[in-house]
Amino acid sequence: MNEKAIWDYLFPRIGNSFGVAGLMGNLFAESGLEPTNLQGAYEKKLGYTDSSYTAAVDSGRYPADSFIHDGAGYGLAQWAYWSRKEKLLEHARACGKSIGDLDTQLGFLWEEIQGYRALTNRLMLATSVQEASDVVLTQYERPLDQGDGAKAKRASYGQKYYDMFAGQTSEKKTNEGSENMATNNDKYKLSTGTHYISNSGSDENGAYTGGTAGDQTGKEWQLKAWYNRPWTVVLRYPDQAVANKIADLGIAAALNNKIGYDQNQRTTYWTQLSKVGYDPSKITVACEEDCTAGVSANVRAAGYIYGIKALQSVPICSSRNMKAEFTKAGFKALTASKYLTSGKYLLPGDILLYESHHAATNVTCGASVRNEWHPAETASAPMDGIEPYVGEITIELPSILIKGGSVNVRKGPGTSYGTLGIAKANEYLHYFGYTNPDGWFLVEYNQQTGWVSGKYGELVG
User: Fold this and answer.
1) pLDDT by residue (tens digit) across 199-214?
2) Are the C-beta atoms of residues 412 and 433 closer than 8 Å to each other?
3) Phi, psi torsion values for 110, nearest 5 degrees
4) 3-class state of residue 407 by DSSP
5) What's the pTM?
6) Per-residue DSSP letters for 170-222?
């Protein structure tokens, strides 16, 4: 049966029964889990059945251009928009398979879904079938009916598959609840309205060497609003899926306070990263990097994750040789002013370089790129036809809820530091880290990073 084959394909990739079930419920609603399914309204219009349409496309009797542009939903996910059908056809031909082959469509489905960053992450971390089903409905399938009734129906389909198959395979583990929130950082979204980079620049004493291993302040490696260093070149990897991973690694490293800054110990981050399967969130031994060593290590790690030898061979660079080494490994050097003077045209995974001085990793999709890649709905391109943008980061950062009254947001983790302002009771501030034993939260406040006493804040989300 297709349902078991689909579960067995998706589970090792998603690792979460709720996520797999929620996705499968939506696929059932679209196609009945039949990869040859031709949208019912088009059978009479085109004069084909499921099988005859598939055979005609495979044989060429129904021309490729007609398949791409006929507007008919087809396959497991009922792909209808022309560019998605074009990519499906190209994928099937590259595999030497029928467009209706189940394994071929599953491979294409998973390749496409990974382009929806929010969706992939939520499926991996969903805590209910309903949660997973809703995000597939609203962020991937996007039918005209996204109301409560449609959500309930699709979740009920997903629940059936959860009841059938959950528990037969081992769930992936996460590190949620660790002291410094060094969890699977795919959970986190950079807050809307702020363009973030993953940045490290000095140790806990504001110096380049001599500090204690690890991030003592939460700022040695941090998520920081874009700023002009100034940058002299942006280095962009052409495969956005790989670039997304570089951005993810930059976020995870910034959120793990076991990773600090020291130029004299700059390679110890790579040493620890290579020991934990290239996941910065899993590092538990205090280690150090500097701006270019951290970026280089993450690029190298992405090479091992994706099996790209050119990236595996990237050395731990300095800001003087980074441009040459990265372009040798396949990065493109962008020097137009629009890339250097704001974050509007940047993609996640872009490397910001101020040659001979500094480097950082961009982790936010630029506003101008986002607008360009997400056109408004039109009659000819309905919501379920909008192309995915593979670099979008769309999961919520955890927040600190201010409780018990207004509280000072300070410039450092202690009452001896000056204040940035006052946070009001019941206000939410985005959370970046935690310091022990004093119990201070590192937060975002008015586009700056500041500190709130743990006595007056509660971690949520």
Assistant:
1) 998 998 888 999 999 9
2) no
3) -70, -40
4) strand
5) 0.47
6) PPPP--TT-TT--S-GGG--PPTT--EEEEE---TTSSSSS--SS-SSS-SEE
